[in-house]
Fold these 2 entries.
Entry 1:
Amino acid sequence: MDRAERLTLGFSLGLLGLFFIAVVYASAGRNVGVPTCIVDREPFERDTLFERQPGVYELQMIARMWEFRPGEIRLPPGSTVDLYLTSLDVIHGFMIEDETASKAHMRLPALMAVAVPRYTGQNVNLMAVPGAVTYARVRFDRPGRYKIVCHEYCGDNHHFMNATILVQ
Amino acid sequence: MRMVLTRSERRLLLLELLYPLVLLAMGVYGGLMQTLMRAGIVQRDPFLGPNYYQGLTLHGVFNAIVFTTFFAVAFGNALIPYALGKRLKLRWAWLSALLMVLGSLMAAAAIFAGRASVLYTFYPPLKAHPAFYLGLTLLVVGSWVAFFNWIPLYLGWRRENPDQKTPLAVVGMLATFIVWLIATSAVAVEILFLLLPWSLGWTQEVNVMLARTLFWFFGHPLVYFWLLPAYVMYYTMLPKLAGGKLYSDAAGRLVFLLFIVFSIPVGTHHQYMDPAIGANWKLLHAFFTFAVALPSLITAFSVAASLEYAGRLRGARGLFGWLWKQPYFSRKQWLFSYLIAGLVIFIFGGISGIINASYGMNAAVHNTSWVPGHFHMTVAGPVLLAFLGMSLYLLGQASGKEVRFTGLAVAAPWTWLVGVLLFSFAMSRGGLLGMPRRTNMGVTYLNPSSPFYREDWVLWADMAVVGGVIMTLAFVLYLISFLGTLMARPAAEPALVFPLAEAYHDEPVRALANFRPWIVAALILIVIAYTPVIWDVLRSTYENAPPYLPGSPLPVQPTGR
């Protein structure tokens, strides 16, 4: 190997190492996680929302062709939600979008809309799979309309499948 | 070196080039319709077009699975015998081609009949007609036969030339199919043991997470199976087309061998947002995914160094002068434009790929239209352009005809570059705003009279239409050149001549001489990466699922329909 090759290889390895350190830091230091394997949870067959402690809710949600249940969820600002999700039939997707922030982004001039990413606060992005339960903890601080859109193809009416979380 | 083709060899090659191109043309039309329907510009099933999800299945299966597999086999059938100076065993080659044609026809029939609208990932418990699964299996088995047909040629050459290095082109093609063989074994298990018996009604239920995990064991290495034939062209032909030499032969060998090791234990990065798999194992797959970016970074250097060498031979000065001394628009070296345009697109494809693999960051983009934005810059970028360019090249060689309309042939990849970058930027940007992938948003989210209307997505869906139209136009330019060549009179005897480059640094490296240690390393990594994942899936899924059809929320009755 000549000098240029050695330099490039070193630079490439350094770059990938840096990325990996960033991932580990985000995951361990900033608590940016991904869903994990849940085995200590009884399967549920009905959707429920209840307040476990003051301000802390537990939401058991079932996705099905072609709706989420419950379809509209009302929460006070500052709520923390422990969200458990499964599917009754096929695989569905689940993503929470802050629609109020999205609309605000629309009001930017077109050029800025291209350049300025929308602030999303936090991302909740899950798969609803039959026979398995997934989990995420979400905090809703800002009042607004949060939309849940199914983002995994689940049959003919997939594009109608959505739900709303109203924080007010 | 020239290799004169017999009539049977010529017919085999032409079949393997023309048949998938017909399917690809349908897939491209499907793609155009996707963008129009997604944006709500076409709100009904179009004239001469399938409905949205049927069309999406067709687009994915024809373009990403059938066309790519056929091309890789055709390319290997031409390049390996040429580089080794040996003849292909034609009986087996024909068997492989016929299996692939039969299989793809079965899958296509199921899709056209509307009985397989399950998309190209065919996630259960959405059920397709058994012909769909069986057809895909035959397609894969046909490609295995082609691979097994090359192995005796390679081993024979090694025996006869014990002191020589295997030609780099052969190393690249064999690496491609080693990755393919290991990867497709998992999807074969998924189809033969889980999906096919369940689709036929022999078994009642299927473990959805297990099927998903086996699919992605295959699904990510699949992208390297697409990419590696393009890499073979970048290493062995691009430097010669530019008028120079490959900078380092050993770097090329190392890259292909690293792909064997690292391309497979990465599939769980498609399942970061799935339940039933431990977060720690997802992180392990993230680490391996970064490792597989290494060979691509080495390639970026090798290609740039080779082009710099060619540029300096032509009198380029200064640090970056060589960038302007390349035959970007040369009608004589028209193949160069396909390879280089693909590489430019791949810069963005590679960066967005690293983003997808970045564990927690994936939550921002998973299953949004960011993802098709990314893979149109990879599989519809370097892969498609290299395959199209080489298809045209092989057509000329195998039929003994001069390539016609080279001006259009050069314009096609650059037009494609403009279209695909516009399209992918629009899709990626929309994805950051939450636009879902694989969704006919035209009737709901992008329909102003719908209660679900999302005006903040409109701009990006419309921009994707502009990109899609330009991409279709580029494909038409290509087709004119392709069909013009096909219709031309033969100018010479059909014979293969590949522009294979010499190497600037050509020292032999013993560690890179054999596949075996690298294959063993790959298998060890697979066991390390997948044993805990499969274990998690099996212990944390509490029930299996019966089959469903896309049109009904009730499961398919076990007694049949």
Entry 2:
Amino acid sequence: MIEVHTPDPIRYVNEDGQPVQALPGRFTPELLRELHREMLRAREFDRKLITLLRQGRTTFYAQSTGMEATQVGLARSIRPGHDWVWPYYRDHTLGLAMGVPMYELISQCLGTNSDPSRGRQMPHHFASAALKFVSISSSIASQVPPAAGSAMAQKYLGTDEITVCTFGDGATSEGDWHAGMNMAGVAQAPCLFVCENNQWAISTGVRQQTASETIHVKARAYGMPGYYVDGNDIVAVMEVMTHAAAHVRAGDGPALVECLTYRVGSHSNADADAEKHYRTRDEVSAWVGRDPIVRVERLLEHLGHPVSSEERADLIARTHREVDQDVLRAEATGQPDWKIMFEDVYADLPSHLRTQAAALRAEQDGGRA
Amino acid sequence: MTATQDRQSTDTPTPGTTGEPRTINLIQAVTEALAEELERDRRVVLFGEDVGARGGVFMATAGLQARFGKERVFDTPLSEASIVGAAVGMAARGLRPVAEIQFADYMGPGFDQIISQAAKLRYRSGGQFTCPLVIRTPSGGGVKGGHHHSQSPESYYTHTPGLKVVMPSTPYDAKGLLKAAIRGEDPVIYFEPKRLYRAAKGEVPAHDYTVRIGEAAIRREGSDLTLIGYGGVMPDVERAAEALGAEGVSAEVIDLRSLVPWDQEAVVGSVQKTGRAVLVSEAPRTGNFMGEVAYVIQERAFDSLRAPVGQVAGFDTPYPYVQDKVYLPGPNRILAACVRALNY
Ligand SMILES: Cc1ncc(C[n+]2csc(CCOP(=O)(O)OP(=O)(O)O)c2C)c(N)n1
């Protein structure tokens, strides 16, 4: 039913919210409303975090606005807390949908004492051991070979977990991507590779990134199925992703899913002028018109279960309140002091770091006196 | 004529160019050097991630694609191995590639191409093939970038025979060194201290000039102690020297500018005069290039030393996000090392 190597992305619901093929039974109005809520929550989280950035309370942020269906759909297709995830830096919506507490995420963005990553990483480069959500590295595609290894370990240990590895379209140009895909293919490791193809890598469009018509066809070269899905259609994302995850879980080797979506916002706050330099307003507004959240709203309307404007406004207000409260709560824990610099470098503090820490302690104490 | 000007022996006016020197910042100096070299030599090509339409994430290449065309200034796929490897291939075929790696932290995927190909092509082929390329990359901390946008990896490259390694701290040097790198016959890793991109302002001549790779600049003459640094730490080094001056201590300040090759004569000569040296860099201490400088000082100026060579460096920890400012050696830490040397 779910095809491999299709020329067009698999889709269930079109941009007007009309089903283009029969909706699988599990997509009840209740489930669709739940998905809608999760996507909207993530969207508003993005919006609030951009405000924090403008207020100078955090220093960096990379939105996932427009990509909610891809990330929420993925979270819904795996077993959070059971399967392992090797994510990339734009995956906070995935994290939220998997159950990473907003408070943790915000703490990480603010680098406060409540940040599980202990103030060491850039904003939203978070980690959650509880959810087997591995710490994010900014170095593009560096998570791909470890994800292959994580899946190989699972095979070796005989567990029924799978490994999920996400990346952008740009990442598929890195040697690490090819190395990791190849390794997983050869090892027949239970790894689900997910390309969040939002069509831009900063200012480099996907056509300048690869001469291949799509990303998903590359899977064939590494001996695994490649699926192509409309990443703004959460029904399609969940259907294809669930199918691919089942393939992986069944021990039939790795799979690649390419979700065709769009990065509506800028790459990050360092790139607020995208439209001026490398892409057109028309292109952006065309994709704004394909908004995954609006699509579900239209679908629900079509199914006779519209989301009322009060419901919508209420959810937005609740999310904003939650963010505001979490920000205040996180800020109240203060910033980690210099000591945490020396911890976690190694399991034990070696003598040369002890010496350096002592020197810094003297300097800091001296400064205070 | 100051010592600094004296040592800029390669500042050669091009006949016919006139005009007043202008004050620009470090990133403008980089852009000007690139534009002028693209103009001067058709073999020069420029590429990397986002250098084209976007003009680079720091805008170092802004306007260059519009001016020189997509064949000479272009975006590449997101792959540092491809960028460096392709540069090696082009250089071997007679072009003068100038590749940008978006952040020094991301040279990792291109590392093998740098150390196995670029650095060794001339040597292993008995000089039959050469590799005149330049890799430009923003490095260093102070911009709240966490460890993926703040590291100072120069020591990996100074440890690799066959590479030249430079890091300017002024617009004058940024422009002159980049031109020298592009015109040179060897692979050059050109680190740009990103926190000085806009903070460092200074005069550059209106005429064409180069700064010879391998010559240090004496920024300030002194007799009691020699402060040696390079790149992003230089403004703090100079601040420390000023503070010492206010206390009646005369510090000489040397900006290495080039790490490979480096100006042993300038350093040894200075330490022989002052008897004390404090080395300043922001890279982690273990395996830091300044360890080599310290070694040469003790080897060649041991009899002149009146105190152990002081070193102020980054800590042996990954670069932290929150403690960005604590990590970097600021003027106070530099001063404390100077005081230790003076009171020894
Ligand atoms: C190895 C490496 N090179 C360069 C960068 C700088 N950089 C950060 S994000 C990015 C674009 C990534 O694009 P893509 O993989 O498509 O993900 P997207 O941001 O579009 O979601 C680049 C070039 C990096 N982080 N790592």
